[in-house]
Structure formats: structure tokens, C-alpha cells
């Protein structure tokens, strides 16, 4: 299998779209074809070789693309990928892992907004922070992320998991406003603190917060304190165990009969109830 | 510029030409007897030649379309139009203006009528028309929930109502009388609706029957080119076929007296599919398409367009405000709605017609029941774009009509079995031929709009709006039919080649057609008094700022009518 190493030659000002460079496409291309891939840059097109030093190893263990010196100006990295790996050395621009169906992306830096938008499968790991709308729906759509796993080791911005229907978003740092807004499935786990309105208008799915919750919406109903619960999202779901003592809420009661579950750490929020 | 289109197989129902091999000559934007030897030759051997397509009912410009575009960015993402040398555009069900013009043109369409113009916001419609290339355009102002109309008809003053209609058509640069859920949209302003055609409108105490019949009489007094264009009450509700029949029947006896054009009918029932529902709920919902078709076949005073459901994800939009609220409550998707002062209202809701949904499958079948059972002189092809499906699906609808095999492929393999069980589509063997396709997409449309002098045919003197399709008249392969009608070989607009091999090769800005009726001066003076009073008391804008100015078209085509004999 092929391993492609792209090293950005110099900083760019106008953003470049990288969605044409994904592992399954590279597998069927020669070095020369790869070098001549056209990438949209603003309202122009540039060739891959003009921006990057290109290196190709023909016998890698997995189909892989490594982007070195990456910056926030490289957008749509790994969009729609179904297999293989992309390793980003540096930051990733908007829409990293957007609509991805399979494979794995590791960003060894920060990610801009809309990481993993409408993700369907695969794994997206961001070692630094990510901005807003991690695992969200496309603007205007009501059908968001449906599968796969996003792990952000740092902090995330506002409205993560918007209209999420399936999969997992795991944030090791803090989250901004309205995490899990309109959520309809899947699990969001936040190890750090969350800002206000967590789970706003959620219908289904679960949100777990280990840190401090800034403010809880009044439209959630307190269901009691639970210890080491197993979160089940459907009858068939074998369950996701989580450790700790949590206040359990159901909501959001702006809807009739909502099935959303919200778990908030008792330890970090002694005065919540 | 001169052209001679050689050896095409011509379908021109208005001139009775059914698949004859002949040459068509074009000079200076018109069809002529012959051309000089210098004329450019278009070789149409083995190809089908038809007049340019006409869409008598579509929603392509104005405030509600624009709300659809704005509140559905996800629809914009679905389809991107970026052909070399042309303006880019986006949107599958609510395309941007340029994309709309280009795509109609690619399909061989040369004239489109926007079916619902809120008069107060007419400028918005005309502004978008100016940015919609490739086609001639016209818009129908909404009259069915207008306070002036209610009051004049209530007083039984048809003359004043006629003078008001004439004034508004001129002020809004409108083309015909559109009626949507007569009285119901006004009732929606009070949180209500009207259901039967004899339910009084709250506050105004006038019934839909009085509104429809009154406006039909006014239409013929003025002698407008098109008849009244009606979307009856109860759209989309099980059991509504009876309301539809009652509405169709309530104008019987009124005689067509167009002062322009050759229309013989006084009533046009639009998107009839949405009005041909049997049953009492969605559980016992069934097609009454055949029953409606039978009524249409037996009576000479009306025609229908179908509003064929194409089983896509689309955006519904209508001046039927309460109906859109119902829809939003049914599917839970986002909803926009608005009130237009004394005139009308509207709503917008996305909609997904899934082939596997039982109700949607029946809706699809009802459209086909109408197509397959109505006399082909009395039915028109529309999808009520974008309500039942985007206009870019017309070629697919044509394929369903021309090929029983293709229709059955959908009926037996793709759609829910309710379509077989609750309609008559499965037992119907009718297949449209190209002559009939030319009727439902051209000839009938031109005639009912009152534009058959210049459009919808290929006789000498007609506008040289011509479509050439690469299709064998015997073709039964649905996919091939669809492709041929989606991308015309050639399209001529005003005598110039604008599409070649399915690609737009020339941008041309069509006319905006409107009707200017002159009425007796003293009668006009009288209604101006009423207008001044109402504008001062109720309107948010000044009467003098209301009429659309001359600058709002690339070029106007004015249909002038003298109705000064009304006094
Ligand atoms: Zn309509």
C-alpha cells in the first residue's frame, strides 16, 4: 500500500481545499499523477506539487497520507474518506474529516470549526483544541453526524454534536455553549467543564459531563443520582458503562416525550440540585 | 439571423402536425415560410422538433422562493451548477435564478409562468426575473384573499372588482388572476382556515364559492388572455376531491370571452394531484384521480395541470398559509410563514417524498391517474415546482407517461404497494406518444394562457422558440427518454441557438409579459378613491410608491386590452 508524505513548502494565505487527496484515491495513482492533482485555492486552482514537496513510499503497511507543516489554511482534509489513515503534523483547517465514512485521521495540532461534520464512520482524533461545530450537521440540515468517533484531547467551541444522530464525540477538555444542541442520538462525553445550555432541544442520545456545568436548562427533568451507570440508547444497545456518580436528567422538555439523557458529575457540581 | 432546421420529425399539435418530416425556417426571431440560401442549416435528421416548452405553473421567483433558498442552505449544497462560461448557481429544489434559467433552457423550455406573486412584493418577483436568463416570463398576482376583491364581490359590484383587477395587474405588472385557497389564507390571519366552498371567511362573511365565481366573471368581463387560475380549498387533505369537484363546478355556465388569444375555457385547476384525494384520513387515503379526470373529460369549461409528485426531497411553498402549517405539524421540519398586509400570505416547509412511504406512493400514483385518464387536450404537465418535485424532473415524468414498462419498474420495484392498491395506475396501459407530450408541455399550455398566437406552435408568424430532441419516436426505454428531454440537442430562443448538445451556448434575456387592461375612466376614478382610502388607513406603503416601474424588466411584452365597454 502507498504512503504519501506531503510537506508544505511555505505558509499560505488563501485557503486550499484538500478533499481530492484521500487514501483510496492515492492508491490508484502514480507519483506523477499525484503531483499534478488540482487543488482549489480561493477562486483559482493550484497543483499539489506547487504547494508541497511530495514523497511516495510504495510499500507501507497501511494506505496513509502524512501532511507535514500543516496549517489552518488546509481545509477539507480527509473529507469523505472511507479507508486508510491521514496524519496531520500541525493544524487542520475547517471541515477536517467532514462526511468521512471510514479510516482514521489524526491531527497532531488544533482543528478549525466543523471537524467531522456529518461524519458517518471512522475515527477522527484531534490532539489539540477544536473550534465550533465539532460533529455537527451541515448548515440548515437536520440530519447530523450518524456514526464514527471523534476524540478531541483539548477544548472545543460551541454547538458540538449539533443534530447528532449516532456515534461518539469524546472531549477531554472543556466545551462551549450548547453542546449537543438538537441531539437525536449518539453519545457526547465531556471530561472538562461545559458552558450554558448543554443539551438544548435534545430529543434522544446522551451527554455525560465530568466537569462543572455552568448553567442547566430549566426544561430538563431530574431523575435521581446514579452511580457507574450503563448508558443504553435503544433496546438493542448493549450499553456504554461510565464510571462515577452522576445526577441524571431527561430532556429536553421543550419537546413532548423526549428521550435525551444528561449525566452531570455530582463531585464537580455539589450545588447543582 | 436565418436558420433552416432540416428534416426533423415535427410535432406541432396546434397546427395538427403529428410526426411529419419537414423543414422549419427561422428569420429575425420568427418562424417564416422560407429563408435565403445564406441561412444556417441545422440538421435535424432523425431528431424530434417541437415548439419551445411552456410551464404554466411554477414557482421560480419572488419572496417565498427566496425564503426557500435562504432557509435551506442544505438544498443549495445538494446541486451545484458550474458550467464553463456561465454564472454558477446552486440549489436542487430551490435553484438560484441563473441556474433556473439555464436548466429550463437545457430541457427545451422557453417560457415560464411564476404562479404566485404577492402584489405588494411584485418588485421582488420582477427583480429575479431580470436575473433569470433564457426564458420569457410572466407572473400571476394573487387575488383570492384580497380585501378589495372580498368587499367588491360582497357588494355584488363586479364592475368595480374588474376595474380593481385591471389596476392591480398593471400596477404589479401581472399576467392573470391567481386564486389560492380562496378565503382560507385570510382566515389563517385569524388562526383559522375555510374547508368547504360554502364556509364563510371570518370577518368578511364571503364564501370561497362567491370568490371563485365572482373572479371568473370578472376575468371574462375583462377578457384576459388566461382564465382564472385556481388552487382550491382543502389542498392536501384526504377527502378533498369533493371540494375540488364543487369548485370546478361552481363556474359552470360562464362563457369564455378572451379579448386576446384563443382560450375556450374559463377555469384552470392547478396541481390537481393535491386536490384528488379520497378517504377520510391518511389511513384510508386513496386516489380519486380517475373520478376527477372523468369530470374534466365531460365538461368543456376547464383544464387541469397535474402537479406530479416526483418522489424527491423538495421544498414546498404556497400562498396557502394554513396548509403549510399543517404540513409542518405533520413532518416536524422547519417552517416559515408570512402575512402580506391586505393581500395574501404564504408558508414554506421542506418535504421528503420517500418512494417507500405509503402516502407518498399514492400521491405519485394520483398524478399518473390524472395523466392517464384525462383527455390529453385538457391536461398539462407540471410538478408545481418545487412543491411536488423540481422542474428538472419533467423529463422523468415524460418517461413515466411514454413507457408503461418504465412506469411499472417504479410501481412494482421502487414505490410502496399502496400505489398499486389504492390507485388505478397498475391496470392502465396508456402510453403517451410524442404528439401528446407536445400537447401537455406546449400546445395546451400556450392555448390556455392565451399565448397561442405567438407561442406553443411552429406555424408561420410564431415566435421562433424551438426545441430539438435526439429521440426516436418509438423509444420506450425510460432512461433514454429522460436523457433526451433533459438535455435537448438544440434550443432556439427568439430565433437564436441558445442550447447545443444540452449545453447553454448563448445567454439571452427573455421578455416579461404582462397585461394592461384599459377600463372606463370614470370607473377607474371610483376605485382610485377606494384605493386611496385603504392605502391611507391600512397599507404600510404609499399608493404612489406601489406600482412597479418600467425599469423592472429586461424587456416588457405588454398585452394591451381595451375593456372600456365595462361601465
Ligand atoms: Zn403552485
TrEMBL record, chain A:
This protein's UniProt keywords: Methanogenesis, Oxidoreductase, Repeat
Example GO BP: methanogenesis, from carbon dioxide
Keyword hit for Repeat: yes
Documented EC number(s): 1.2.7.12
Metabolic or biological pathway: One-carbon metabolism; methanogenesis from CO(2); 5,10-methenyl-5,6,7,8-tetrahydromethanopterin from CO(2): step 1/3
Record field: catalytic activity: N-formylmethanofuran + 2 oxidized [2Fe-2S]-[ferredoxin] + H2O = methanofuran + 2 reduced [2Fe-2S]-[ferredoxin] + CO2 + H(+)
Domain of life: Archaea
GO terms for MF: formylmethanofuran dehydrogenase activity; transition metal ion binding
InterPro entries (UniProt xref): FMH_DH_FwdC (IPR054942), Formylmethanofuran_DH_suC (IPR017550), Glu_synth_asu_C_sf (IPR036485)
UniProt family annotation: Belongs to the FwdC/FmdC family.
UniProt protein name: Tungsten-containing formylmethanofuran dehydrogenase 2 subunit C
Organism phylogeny: Archaea, Methanobacteriati, Methanobacteriota, Methanomada group, Methanococci
Automatic annotation (TrEMBL), chain B:
Record domain Amidohydrolase: where: 40-499
Pfam families per UniProt: Amidohydro_3
A GO term, aspect molecular function: hydrolase activity, acting on carbon-nitrogen (but not peptide) bonds
Gene3D superfamilies in the record: Metal-dependent hydrolases, Urease, subunit C, domain 1
Name of the protein in its database record: Formylmethanofuran dehydrogenase subunit A
Source species: Methanotorris igneus (strain DSM 5666 / JCM 11834 / Kol 5)
Lineage: Archaea, Methanobacteriati, Methanobacteriota, Methanomada group, Methanococci
Amino acid at each position: 500500500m502507498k504512503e504519501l508524505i506531503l510537506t508544505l513548502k511555505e505558509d499560505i494565505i488563501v485557503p486550499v481545499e484538500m478533499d481530492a487527496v484521500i487514501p483510496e484515491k492515492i492508491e490508484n495513482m502514480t507519483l506523477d499523477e499525484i503531483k499534478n492533482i488540482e487543488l482549489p485555492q480561493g477562486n483559482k486552482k493550484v497543483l499539489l506539487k506547487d504547494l508541497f514537496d511530495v514523497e511516495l513510499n510504495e510499500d507501507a503497511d497501511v494506505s496513509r497520507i502524512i501532511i507535514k507543516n500543516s496549517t489552518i489554511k488546509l481545509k477539507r482534509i480527509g473529507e469523505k474518506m472511507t479507508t486508510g489513515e491521514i496524519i496531520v503534523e500541525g493544524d487542520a483547517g475547517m471541515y477536517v474529516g467532514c462526511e468521512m465514512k471510514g479510516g482514521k485521521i489524526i491531527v497532531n495540532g488544533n482543528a478549525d470549526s466543523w471537524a467531522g461534520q456529518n461524519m458517518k464512520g471512522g475515527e477522527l482524533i484531534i490532539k489539540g483544541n477544536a473550534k465550533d461545530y465539532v460533529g455537527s450537521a451541515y448548515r440548515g440540515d437536520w440530519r447530523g453526524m450518524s456514526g464514527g468517533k471523534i476524540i478531541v484531547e483539548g477544548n472545543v467551541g460551541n454547538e458540538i454534536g449539533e443534530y447528532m444522530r449516532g456515534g461518539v464525540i469524546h472531549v477531554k477538555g472543556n466545551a462551549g455553549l450548547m453542546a449537543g444542541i438538537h441531539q437525536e442520538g449518539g453519545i457526547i462525553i465531556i471530561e472538562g467543564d461545559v458552558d450554558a445550555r448543554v443539551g438544548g432541544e435534545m430529543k434522544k442520545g446522551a451527554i455525560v459531563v465530568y466537569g462543572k456545568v455552568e448553567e442547566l436548562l430549566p426544561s430538563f427533568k431530574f431523575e435521581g443520582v446514579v452511580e457507574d451507570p450503563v448508558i443504553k440508547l435503544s433496546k438493542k444497545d448493549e450499553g456504554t458503562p461510565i464510571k462515577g456518580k452522576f445526577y441524571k436528567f431527561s430532556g429536553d422538555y421543550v419537546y413532548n416525550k423526549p428521550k435525551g439523557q444528561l449525566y452531570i458529575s455530582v463531585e464537580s457540581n455539589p450545588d447543582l440540585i | 439571423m436565418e436558420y433552416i432546421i432540416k428534416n426533423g420529425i415535427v410535432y406541432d399539435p396546434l397546427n395538427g402536425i403529428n410526426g411529419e418530416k419537414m423543414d422549419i425556417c427561422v428569420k429575425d426571431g420568427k418562424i417564416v415560410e422560407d429563408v435565403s440560401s445564406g441561412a444556417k442549416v441545422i440538421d435535424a435528421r432523425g431528431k424530434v422538433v417541437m415548439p419551445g416548452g411552456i410551464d404554466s405553473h411554477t414557482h421560480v421567483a419572488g419572496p417565498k422562493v427566496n425564503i426557500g433558498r435562504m432557509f435551506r442552505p442544505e438544498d443549495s449544497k445538494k446541486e451545484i451548477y458550474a458550467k464553463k462560461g456561465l454564472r454558477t448557481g446552486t440549489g436542487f429544489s430551490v435553484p438560484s435564478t441563473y441556474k433556473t434559467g439555464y436548466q429550463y433552457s437545457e430541457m427545451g423550455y422557453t417560457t415560464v409562468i411564476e404562479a404566485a406573486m404577492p402584489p405588494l412584493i411584485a418588485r421582488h418577483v420582477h427583480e429575479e426575473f431580470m436575473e433569470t436568463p433564457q426564458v420569457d416570463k410572466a407572473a400571476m398576482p394573487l387575488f383570492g384573499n384580497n380585501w378589495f376583491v372580498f368587499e367588491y364581490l360582497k357588494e355584488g359590484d363586479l364592475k368595480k372588482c374588474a376595474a380593481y383587477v385591471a389596476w392591480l395587474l398593471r400596477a404589479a405588472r401581472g399576467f392573470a388572476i391567481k386564486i389560492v385557497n380562496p378565503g382560507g389564507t385570510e382566515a389563517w390571519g385569524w388562526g383559522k382556515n375555510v374547508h368547504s366552498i360554502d364556509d364563510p371567511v371570518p370577518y368578511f362573511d364571503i364564501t370561497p364559492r362567491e370568490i371563485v365565481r365572482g373572479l371568473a366573471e370578472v376575468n371574462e368581463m375583462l377578457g384576459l388572455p388566461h382564465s382564472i387560475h385556481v388552487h382550491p380549498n382543502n389542498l392536501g387533505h384526504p377527502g378533498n376531491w369533493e371540494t375540488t369537484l364543487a369548485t370546478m363546478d361552481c363556474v359552470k355556465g360562464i362563457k369564455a370571452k378572451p379579448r386576446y388569444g384563443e382560450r375556450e375555457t374559463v377555469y384552470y385547476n392547478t396541481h390537481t394531484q393535491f386536490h384528488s384525494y379520497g378517504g377520510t384520513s391518511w389511513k384510508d387515503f386513496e386516489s380519486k384521480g380517475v373520478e376527477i379526470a372523468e369530470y374534466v373529460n365531460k365538461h368543456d369549461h376547464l383544464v387541469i395541470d397535474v402537479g406530479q409528485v416526483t418522489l424527491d426531497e423538495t421544498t414546498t411553498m404556497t400562498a396557502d398559509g394554513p396548509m403549510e402549517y399543517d404540513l409542518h405539524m405533520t413532518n416536524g421540519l422547519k417552517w416559515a410563514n408570512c402575512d402580506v398586509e391586505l393581500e395574501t400570505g404564504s408558508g414554506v416547509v421542506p418535504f421528503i417524498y420517500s418512494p417507500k412511504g405509503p402516502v407518498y406512493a399514492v400521491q405519485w400514483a394520483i398524478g399518473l391517474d390524472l395523466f392517464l385518464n384525462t383527455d390529453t387536450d385538457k391536461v398539462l404537465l407540471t410538478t408545481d415546482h418545487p412543491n411536488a418535485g423540481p422542474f428538472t424532473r419533467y423529463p422523468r415524468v415524460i418517461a413515466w407517461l411514454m413507457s408503461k414498462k418504465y412506469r411499472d419498474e417504479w410501481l412494482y420495484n421502487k414505490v410502496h404497494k399502496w400505489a398499486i392498491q389504492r390507485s388505478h395506475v397498475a391496470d392502465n396501459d396508456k402510453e403517451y406518444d410524442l404528439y401528446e407530450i407536445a400537447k401537455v408541455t406546449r400546445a395546451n399550455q400556450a392555448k390556455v394562457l392565451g399565448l397561442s398566437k405567438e407561442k406553443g406552435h411552429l406555424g408561420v408568424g410564431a415566435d421562433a422558440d424551438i426545441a430539438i430532441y435526439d429521440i426516436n419516436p418509438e423509444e420506450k426505454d425510460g432512461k433514454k427518454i429522460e436523457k433526451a428531454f433533459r438535455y435537448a440537442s438544440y434550443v432556439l430562443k427568439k430565433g437564436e441557438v441558445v442550447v447545443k448538445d444540452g449545453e447553454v451556448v448563448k445567454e439571452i434575456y427573455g421578455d416579461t409579459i404582462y397585461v394592461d387592461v384599459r377600463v372606463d375612466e370614470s370607473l377607474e376614478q371610483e376605485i382610485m378613491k377606494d384605493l386611496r382610502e385603504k392605502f391611507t388607513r391600512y397599507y404600510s406603503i404609499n399608493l404612489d410608491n406601489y406600482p412597479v416601474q418600467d425599469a423592472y424588466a429586461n424587456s416588457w411584452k405588454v398585452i394591451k386590452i381595451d375593456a372600456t365597454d365595462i361601465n
